[in-house]
Specification:
It is a single chain. The chain has 213 residues and is α+β, with helices and mostly antiparallel strands. The protein has a single domain (45-211), classed as Immunoglobulin-like, CATH 2.60.40. It is 14% helix and 35% strand. It contains 1 helix and 14 strands. It has one helix at residues 2-31, and strands at residues 45-51, 68-69, 74-80, 84-90, 99-102, 108-111, 120-122, 129-136, 141-142, 146-147, 158-160, 170-175, 179-191, 205-211. Strands 1, 2, 3, 8, 9 and 13 form a 6-stranded antiparallel β-sheet that branches. A hairpin with a 5-residue loop joins strand 5 (99-102) and strand 6. It is elongated and about 80 Å long.
Length: 213
């Protein structure tokens, strides 16, 4: 009888041990599993470039007597949920140089920012030059727009020059954070020298709004 009890205890211990091992093997892999959780927020980037009440920006008649400011002022507005750049380039002479270009009569260009195509210049009467001033406004909320050094903090007749073609596109302003309805004012200015030929001059500016991420 004692042997039978011993055998029963022995088998109970064996079954108990097997049950524990089975429980360990069944539970342990589940307890170490990981679950990847994914979410997505769509990138939003909306920029508008416009001239209020007009189809084009006009300088009118340029003279050697002073510096001319084009009208109206161009406005750029932006709403984004990511860091971004405002960029631009111009059509210039259609091949390699930025500026106001005349292809009628005597071919000529009013160089940007000056006759040697420098980055910045203080325009003056009787001296060839053409460029832009860029300034932020108080309109909008969230992040701030930072104007690029070439165009920032210009007062009086100081302007930043343009660059020809998409391959030379440059940043005009940027933000490192999301913005809502932030606004830029872009003022175009020009002056001519006695050496600039008479004729109709034109430039086409292309603005782009791109993520910096």
């Amino acid at each position: 009888m004692a042997k039978m009890i011993t055998k029963k205890i022995h088998w109970l211990l064996v079954l108990s041990l097997i049950g524990s091992l089975m429980g360990w093997f069944l539970v342990e892999p589940v307890s170490s599993d990981t679950v990847d959780v994914w979410a997505n927020i769509a990138e939003g980037l909306t920029c508008n470039y416009s001239v209020s009440g007009a189809a084009t920006v006009q300088f009118g008649i340029l003279t050697t007597g002073g510096v001319t400011t084009a009208s109206p002022v161009l406005q750029a507005t932006s709403t984004t949920n990511l860091a971004f750049y405002h960029k631009l380039y111009d059509s210039g002479n259609g091949s390699d140089s930025p500026g106001l270009y005349s292809s009628t009569g005597t071919i000529d260009i009013i160089g940007s920012a000056d006759s040697s195509f420098g980055d910045t210049v203080e325009l003056a009467g009787a001296t060839e030059g053409y460029g832009i001033q860029v300034a932020t406004t108080s309109v909008g909320s969230d992040g701030l727009l930072i104007v690029a050094t070439r165009y920032a903090n210009h007062i009086g007749n100081w302007v930043g020059g343009l660059e020809y073609g998409s391959a030379n596109e440059i940043a005009m302003a940027s933000s490192s954070a999301a913005v809502t309805d932030r606004e830029l004012n872009i003022t175009m200015m020009a002056a001519i020298s006695a050496g600039n030929a008479g004729g109709d001059y034109k430039d086409i500016l292309t603005f782009t709004c791109v993520s910096s991420m």
